[in-house]
């Protein structure tokens, strides 16, 4: 059972949609209001990533054991790596009274909707699949076959994001400042004591 606290905020969107950039800005602008739930992953750290800050880096055996013990709210396998949000990570944030922010994939969203967390669900939409591909290629972090997989997954995620009832709001990220403003307005409208949030 996850400890009660403010409704968590879930951000979902394809890799390259800009959700991580929006999230970073929100956490930087309002560090006393929002706390990030650090996910677990079995993938290797990328350059500059730190354990416990960007992810809790783990291995498949340990993660499978923790899942079997019921320690995770949601898990997903993406590009051959496991990802997940532990109950402990969410409780740590909620204990401080902050709004817990989760950055999770489509499969994770489906699982979180089945919990008693009652999260606010935000889908970050890229301007187009072509623009998404340009952004991912600019990053230069994936070999071509992994990039193709990411794009195929992105198409499925966009379809899921656009289905009525899956998210409370869809934010088109064709302009970062505009998308950020929309995100802030959505949170202000849906969080009690909104005057105290912003």
UniProtKB/TrEMBL annotation:
Belongs to the guanylate kinase family. One of its GO terms (molecular function) is GMP kinase activity. InterPro entries: GK/Ca_channel_bsu (IPR008145), Guanylate_kin-like_dom (IPR008144), Guanylate_kinase (IPR017665), Guanylate_kinase_CS (IPR020590), P-loop_NTPase (IPR027417). Residues 6-188 form the Guanylate kinase-like domain. Keywords: ATP-binding, Kinase, Nucleotide-binding, Transferase. GO terms for cellular component: cytosol. Its EC number is 2.7.4.8. It is an enzyme of class 2 (transferase). This is guanylate kinase. It holds the Pfam family Guanylate_kin. It comes from the Eukaryota. PROSITE patterns: GUANYLATE_KINASE_1, GUANYLATE_KINASE_2.
């Amino acid at each position: 059972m996850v400890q009660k606290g403010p409704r968590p905020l879930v951000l979902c969107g394809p890799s390259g949609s800009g959700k991580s950039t929006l999230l970073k800005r929100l956490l930087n602008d309002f560090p006393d209001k929002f706390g990030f739930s650090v996910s677990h992953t079995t993938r290797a750290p990328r350059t500059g990533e730190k354990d416990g800050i960007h992810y809790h880096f783990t291995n498949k055996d340990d993660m499978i054991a923790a899942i079997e013990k019921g320690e995770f709210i949601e898990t997903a396998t993406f590009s051959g790596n496991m990802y997940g949000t532990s109950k402990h990570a969410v409780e740590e944030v909620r204990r401080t009274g902050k709004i817990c922010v989760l950055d999770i994939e489509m499969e994770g969203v489906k699982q979180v909707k089945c919990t008693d967390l009652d999260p606010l669900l935000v889908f970050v939409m890229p301007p187009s699949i072509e623009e998404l591909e340009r952004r991912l290629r600019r990053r230069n972090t994936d070999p071509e076959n992994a990039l193709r997989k990411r794009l195929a997954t992105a198409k499925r995620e966009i379809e899921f994001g656009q289905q009525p009832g899956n998210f409370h709001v869809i934010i088109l990220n064709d302009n970062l400042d505009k998308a950020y403003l929309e995100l802030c307005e959505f949170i202000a409208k849906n969080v009690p004591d909104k005057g105290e949030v912003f």
